[in-house]
Predict the structure.
Amino acid sequence: MEVALSPLDEPALARLLDAAVAGADPLEVMPPVIGAPGWTPERRTAFLEFHRTRCLNPATAVERTWVVDVGGEAVGAARLQPRGDAVEAGIWLSRASRGRGIGTRVTALLLDEARSTGAARFLASTTTGNRGARAVLASAGAVLTAEGDEVTAELALN
Ligand SMILES: CC(C)(COP(=O)(O)OP(=O)(O)OC[C@H]1O[C@@H](n2cnc3c(N)ncnc32)[C@H](O)[C@@H]1OP(=O)(O)O)[C@@H](O)C(=O)NCCC(=O)NCCS
């Protein structure tokens, strides 16, 4: 199973939207949008604008985003956002791609990217109920700290 990170661009963003619509809940992959549930036209547009604003438009970009490709097919996204001397990471995978070791592999690839930026620390946030995310982060060597439902993961990179 070949897992690769493809830098986001417009063609990759179109593939990413297809993967999100096919296999993820909007709330797992983007901020809430008011209106009827599911992948409405408004939510699809908001998904595209979310990534254009945060990654593709140089005037507003705050993070680097990649499409997670498995065997050449988009199955999710990964991101790194600089935060002072640290980088904050995020990952989502489509339902059919979870629990197969892909998140573990993507985390290793993100750690390589994070090191190459010279960042001192790798950060991620999740919730106590997200056992998959907690397991992936702990097995990567991150120290997890819980405060209420929020879990913060931190790993020194140097
Ligand atoms: C969280 C997520 C990225 C994890 O990636 P994944 O590919 O499913 O995880 P892996 O298959 O690599 O599993 C890694 C470890 O987590 C464990 N795990 C995975 N899913 C689990 C689950 N739902 N419950 C309990 N353990 C789980 C695996 O058993 C494995 O443990 P091991 O290292 O001891 O063998 C993925 O499930 C996902 O995208 N979920 C939805 C979106 C999301 O929650 N993103 C993170 C927000 S912070």
In short: The chain has a mean pLDDT of 97. The first strand starts at residue 3 and ends at 7. The beta strands are 3-7, 64-70, 73-83, 86-93, 121-127, 143-147, 150-156.
